[in-house]
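dumping this here before i forget
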Amino acid sequence: MTTSSGRDSMHIRSLLLVAIVLATACGGASSSAPTATAKPTPTPEPTVSVADSSLGKILIAASNKMTLYTYARDTADTSNCYDQCATNWPAFTITGEPVASAGITGKLALAPRKDGQKQLTWNSKPLYFYNKDTKPGDVLGQNVGTVWFVVTNP
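structure:
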């Protein structure tokens, strides 16, 4: 036979057990502070990419997919194309740091122009567009005046 104090003791133990189970299930022991997660570093967009053309693999501007050219009368990191020349052959200028897409050989950098802009260079050669190229893949400026050349990516 069970006494009333034995029943009360059993009842109290049962209530304690239920309280512990509920507290654990409700997460009473866990912290409510959010955990910090590291944000991934954004990958910069490429400035220059490689494309297939009738001349083989060439360098193009990643933003507009247009062909890039070099000028034989330029010197290392120095453009000699201004005024009417720059109207026909606009310099490839950017404001940030150059980023090459995968597969590009050679070094991209920036060179100052007389007009204060920064012109993109490839292996120290200033880069240009040709105003008669109207769509991606055009290479109409190749060998113009025997001084303008499409930049090929070996």
